[in-house]
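Following up on my earlier message about 3-(2-carboxyethyl)benzoic acid. Here are the inputs again, as you asked, copied directly from the submission form:
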Amino acid sequence: MLEGLGSWPVQQADQPPAHSREKAYASSNMALPLNTSLLPRTPETGSCACLRVHADHPPGVNLRDGCLSVAPGLESLAASYRIEEWRADGPGRASLEGHVHLLEHADVLFAAWHQPDTTLADTTRQAYLDLFLAVRARGFPYPVRIWNYFSDIHGDEDGLERYQSFCIGRGLALDELGITEESMPAATAIGTRAAGLFVYLIAARCPGKAIENPRQISAYRYPEQYSPESPAFARATRIETTEGPQLLLSGTASITGHESRHVGDCAAQAREILANLDALHATAGNDLPPPAWLRVYLRRPEDQPVVAGILSEHYPHTPAVHWVLGDVCRRELLVEIEGVHARTP
Ligand code: 3EB
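Thanks, got it. Here's what our run produced:
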């Protein structure tokens, strides 16, 4: 078992620190140089050294022009094309290690993985092992945000729903890596129509703060009816950046306690999600700015106008929104929202 992965870095005088640990201590009080925005089109500038998530592109991962580009099979809804960009400082160093595409900055590491899913459980296990070992080897053992996309999320694999197989694979990898569920960051897991499993993440040298939602049971404590292996993610991650605190919001659904609410009513589901997002904001600290952007996953494109109305009623200044098609992991859920609280320029 590999130690020190997911636990808080505790200084131990009797243990000579590994190179990566030394670095982690050196920068432990340093704010992360990280910011994000939702762009209406690809900027003209050649080299960006950032992580870009594209919708409506042929699915895949590449390292071109010093940029880590991920197209995880997202399909934008009408007139909503956006690019999600995450910027760190400096030029960044791109590399491909096995199936892991990496873009390394001084204090932030972007990593992405995409392979066909032979069986989703095995493939997910391999993706998590590959990614977590790669970021750890570079001195960035703490993912602060993870995204997961795969096709046919309600399909069957060996008698289980594919989302459950995904949870099993993730759980196996975390066990092997010695990572506890409580130390996992914010995440998204959404069904798309693109082949293969996509997992990508943002990792840091020091952990972010996992935030749980007082309105919801932690996903890793859900009763077994949802999955034989519980979902391992936090409801949000709070990080301190050079531009102030940020709150990275997990894909958030109409769930309170552990139960789906407002089955069949997308508008009511959206309102419940906003109550969940507000609760996360309140829990994470009132020093946090409002959401800079949100991504709304809809099972049915025709629900867009009603959800858009609810968002603009709720927020005094409606954040930038990327509307996409996506299948939430429970069949009865019609909408899910993720996003980021961050200072906007
Ligand atoms: C939920 O709250 C909705 O398995 O990584 C949202 C975000 C959901 C992440 C995951 C699942 C995951 O249970 C589903």
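One observation from looking it over: The longest strand covers residues 142-151. Hope that helps, and feel free to reply on this thread.
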